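USER:
Try writing one entry.

ASSISTANT:
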Amino acid sequence: MESPRQPDGAKAPTRVGEVVGAAGGGGDVRKYPKPPTLWRRILAHSVIPESWPLAARYPTRYTFIALLVAILIAGAVAGLGDGLRFANEILAIAARYQAAYPEVPLVITPEGELKATPAFKEPIQFSFPNSRIVIDPTGKTHPESIKTPTILLTNKEAIICRGNGEEMRLPQWLKLPPSPEDKQDLPITGQSIRTLSTGMGTLTGLMIGLTLAIGNVIWAAVTMFLLCPLLIVVASAGDRGLLMPRRVAYRMIAALMVPLVLFSGIMHAAGYSILSTLGGLDPALLFWFFTTAALAVWTGFMAKKIYAPPIKS
């Protein structure tokens, strides 16, 4: 591939022995070509791999902003998918609950505690893909007896059991202010559960989307720091090697992360996240790290192909 032509006023492509993106000799101020619009940059980084090394031609902030927007989009898409799934699961629980318990087995007292009625015969269980909920306000179910990931709801607290003996207690999980006007117990029916589906789905989606966005920001920062030397070494190897400063390597790595982040968000929204597919956080982190490293190596070779001149015979 020939070196890309530069617009008027822009620096020529880096040659052997020069520094990509650095100022010219004599103290010249570094100049950049005008970058494409934000959405065009995101689209180009997502579908055109050659745009990753070309990110070196633009100021660092432009590529970082594109990556940040991609992270926000991925978080929103993943949160939307999980929120809709959770809302549908709540509706399914409401239907099963109403069919299984014609007489109301649970009520909420004016003090905000969960209480069993005479219709309550045994702990109520609802299964999810990777966990379950057990409702037992009588206190007969002990967390120590639970061997699978479970949320145990008692009369006063929620206990998150991880299945390996570890647990986290949330006291007063249902605590509500007493109502002096109405001292009657509030029955928990299938309809009352259905009314919670939209709100709980929205809250779940927001929490998951925000958590993934924060996690992706941290992952991107750590990965750029770790892979920057790799990209610099690959680009500098051989007779046509480039001298590349860290800021330019950061631009290229940030650009190649855009499609990875968007892909992870789409897969999560579809219910096939890498985390759940590979069965844990450690395998997922290793997968994303080595995938990004492989793309960084490819980007280093492409940078030499684009910016380095042919070897003179």
Notes: Residues 25-78+204-307 form one domain.
